[in-house]
Amino acid sequence: MKTAVCARVLFLVMIVLLGGMREAVAANGDLVEVFIDARQPAYVVYQGVAEDTPQIARQEMAGYATLDGVSLVAWAEFSANVSDYIAPGIVKNEYPGARTALGLLAMLKAKPGRPVAITWNGGIATSFFDFQHAVEVFERYLDNGVSYENSRRQSVEDDPLDPDVQIKAMLGG
Question: I need a surface site. Which of 20, 35, 107, 139 has the fewest CB within 10 A?
Answer without folding.
Answer: 20
